[in-house]
Design brief:
The complex is a heterodimer. Chain A is globular and about 55 Å long. Chain A has two helices and nine strands. By secondary structure, chain A is an alpha+beta fold. Chain B is an alpha+beta fold. Classes of the chains: A alpha+beta, B alpha+beta. Chains A and B meet through helix 1 of A and helix 1, strand 1 and helix 2 of B.
């Protein structure tokens, strides 16, 4: 028994060292923070293991190139535990090379102001990350369906605060009027092998990233999630917000499949959040 | 005991393979990457809580006064994925902690490494320099 336990621990180390798939934390703008980096051949925005300070620690092994699995009806199978798929440090990192964010002057001014108040990032105070921001914690797609057709897709997030997104898959449209929320109103469908999520109705409270890249309640996102192979999920997001940007733009981020056997764990951010005390910062949401 | 040793070895191995356990929140706004500390003391409390696990260390100062340090490490889920549990670090453990001090409250530390009295390395909480990491590589 002891040997088995010892071997189990040894295996754990191997998994940690070789797969380096542990979703190590860090939110907030920890200096040159890094959710991302080159993700092998598939490119931009891949979440890598990060240290306490938010920087990427090691490069991952290349993702498996095995084909993505399919459900019995042929639909692409998104099952698995994923990390990444959105910005953390900077949404601009998902732009194509040479592109810049088409910020309107007011949005640029707000971003500049936030740069002086980086500790106001709602994420640091256990508020939701919104869309399309990611966290260093895993998530999974969970589909609900009747005997005839899918009804909902849920994206269940471990972090930042044990959140979920609800995507209506039954063909409904967005309501004409919506009260703004952190995750908005989402409708989804499959375009061949790509899950397309169209979302509106966001509030303007969340920051796209640690840089404080802003948006308004006019934000409209279209996410295109494609499992390009068994280990890689690409999220191509079109951001359309005439209140903050002069034109729509597209950013791309990749998520990586986590180690077999890993599962969503509890993450109740509000439980004992002592952020700010050591650095002398006040909670802007408590004012 | 062998299992405990294996856990400790696992911790050292995780550390040595370059994977460091991280913190949930911004480092540079909370801690001073140039203000390092190394203290010896006794674990007085462990909070296995989100967003960060914290442990408290009673440190005897030179004048005999005892100061309780508040040490921050990674989240329970990240630690658990690296083999730790709420029982890995115990009240009463005599330890040496190295890390970075809070910018405003010096006795709040971001723990980089914890060493037991017999020299075994228990775990590390942070990477070395918060702002020395290369900028995010993209595209």
């Amino acid at each position: 028994m002891r040997k088995l336990l010892d071997r189990g621990v040894a295996s754990l180390v191997v998994v940690a060292c070789v797969a380096t798939v542990v979703p190590l934390l860090a939110q907030g703008r920890g200096g040159a923070g890094g959710q991302g980096g080159q993700g092998g051949e598939t490119g931009r925005g891949v979440l890598g293991p990060v240290g306490a300070l938010g920087q990427e620690v090691v490069r991952r092994a290349p993702a498996s190139n095995e084909p993505a699995p399919r459900l019995p009806d042929g639909t692409i199978d998104l099952n698995g535990l994923w990390v990444g798929g959105g910005p953390v440090n900077s949404i601009a990192q998902g732009l194509k090379k040479g592109e810049t964010l088409p910020l309107l002057p007011a949005a640029k001014a707000l971003m500049d102001q936030r740069a002086t108040r980086e500790t106001d990032d709602p994420h640091l105070w256990c508020m939701p990350m919104g869309v399309p921001r990611s966290t260093p914690y895993p998530f999974r797609f969970v589909q609900n369906y009747t005997h005839k057709k899918p009804t909902h897709m849920f994206i269940v997030h471990e972090g930042n605060i044990h959140s979920f997104r609800q995507i209506f898959m039954d063909g409904r449209k967005h309501p004409a009027e919506l009260d703004p929320t952190w995750f908005g109103h989402s409708i989804g469908s499959f375009d061949k092998d790509t899950l397309v999520i169209d979302s509106v109705g966001f509030n303007d409270k969340f920051w796209f990233d640690r840089q404080g890249t802003p948006h308004t309640e006019q934000l409209h996102t279209i996410e295109r999630w494609t499992r390009v192979n068994i280990g890689t999920l690409t999220n191509e997001v079109t951001i359309d917000d005439p209140g903050a940007f002069s034109r729509p733009f597209t950013v791309t981020f990749n998520a990586r499949l986590q180690a077999p056997g890993d599962e969503i764990m509890e993450y109740i951010c509000q439980e004992n959040n002592q952020y700010g005390v050591a650095g002398g910062h006040q909670n802007p949401f408590a004012q | 005991m062998r299992t405990m040793v294996a856990v400790l070895v696992a911790g050292a191995a995780v550390l040595s393979c370059g994977v460091v356990l991280g913190a949930h929140h911004s480092f540079s706004s909370e801690y001073d990457g140039t203000k390092t500390f190394k203290v010896n003391g006794v674990v007085s409390k462990v909070e296995w809580t989100n967003p960060h696990v914290r442990f408290y260390v009673d440190v005897a100062e030179q004048d005999g006064k005892v100061t309780t340090w508040n040490m921050e490490i990674a989240s329970p889920s990240a630690l658990a994925r690296n083999g730790w549990s709420s029982r890995t670090l115990k009240v009463g453990d005599k330890i040496t902690v190295e890390g970075y001090s809070g910018k405003v409250v010096a006795t709040r530390g971001n723990a980089k490494s914890v060493t037991l009295a017999d020299g075994r390395s228990l775990f590390a909480g942070a990477a070395d320099d918060p702002d020395a990491a290369p900028p995010d590589a993209r595209q």
